[in-house]
Amino acid sequence: MKQPVADIATEAADGYVLCQDCGHVEPWTADRHQEREACSRCGGQFCGCDACNELARLAVQFQTPDEVKP
Ligand SMILES: [Zn+2]
Ligand SMILES: [Zn+2]
Q: Which pLDDT score is estimated for 49?
């Protein structure tokens, strides 16, 4: 019997946080994840759990990157 190879714990620290109020996405940091840093747009609180991380990643893929702004 082989051990399962799914070891994704190390990837969790490199993701996104999602503002619970306006849906703004920012890169994951411990401060944002632990709600010590508020959303720069609305002052709301970020969540960096697995579900929000995944939502944020999808949002980023369908979002116009900041550098493309006029
Ligand atoms: Zn916000
Ligand atoms: Zn969450």
A: 92
Ligand nearest the Cα atom of residue 50: 2
Residues with CB under 5 A from ligand 1 (ion): 19, 21-22, 24, 39, 41-42, 44
For residue range 20-57, what is the model confidence (pLDDT) as tens digits?
Answer: 999 999 999 999 999 999 999 999 999 999 999 999 99
Q: Where are the domains of the chain?
A: 14-68
| Ligand nearest to the backbone CA of 56 | 2
Neighbours of 18 (CB within 10 A): 25
CA dist 35 → 1, 16, 19, 25 (Å): 42, 13, 10, 14
